[in-house]
Design goal:
2 strands; mainly alpha; Leucine-rich Repeat Variant; two-stranded antiparallel ribbon; 308 residues
Length: 308
Amino acid sequence: MTCDLVLPLIPLYFYGELAPPEEERVEEHLHACQACTREMERQRALGAALTTSRAEAPATLLEECRVDLMAAIRGGAPRQIVKAPGPWTLFLQALAHSFEGLGRLQQPVGAVALLAIGFFAANLVNHRTVPSTAPSASDQMFNTVRSVQADNAGHVQIAFDETRRRVLSGSTEDRDIQQLLLAAAREDNPAVRVESMDLLKNRSDSGEVRNALLNAVAHDPNPGVRLKAVEGLKPLAAIPDVRKVLAKVLLSDDNSAVRMQVVDLLVEHRDNAIVGVLQDLMQKEDNSYVRLKSEKALKEMNASIGTF
């Protein structure tokens, strides 16, 4: 391997992120190349210095992230401005503090801090949301610094990854908005999934939305999300495939509110199959309201409460 190939891999090698074969090739090169070995020593010094200082994320960080995601879903709602220092500011402060005792690197670190502060300040100043009734995107750039290399002359080389935040505004009928809502329905945050289900439930005529509703009612761990999905399936309650999923949910869901809503959907379109499902439910149902609903439906269909 050449130095040009090895240098970008040194930070990954230091943090153990390389595959074993690639790691061995980097080690072989380091044994034979003094320049790359010196670079490896700089990486070790940087890593050791960073471990001496810890930057705690501000208490408002989680709320900021939630506000940003809700803004993206709702179409660019204004973000609440929090005066507390952001995580990048804390990182730069910790970085500068870590290198206070390393006289040789004070100048490069100062350059790093100035470059980073100037970059993010420019992004914050130039970021604007463009109001429009049609879908529009507003970008904001974020960087993750992967490595910092400095020489004795004060020159700095920084390797970083760029990610771009976009804010999309538009109607739920827009294809791009629907795709983002479908993606939001799979997010880890249950509040985001509830909001997306609440918007998608009115678009159940779409095959993708229908599949998302069925997946949510059958598998989502949050009962609020499942209830929203049940609401969205109301217009589809007569479809056999939908009824099969609802029947399984009725016998397996651990939330009584979900089971009550599913009973209402199934009995709106009565068939012979639902009789057996309700009879099976009566054998194990421990919620009095669900039992009453099921018993009433069975009586109206002239069916016995128990199975024989």
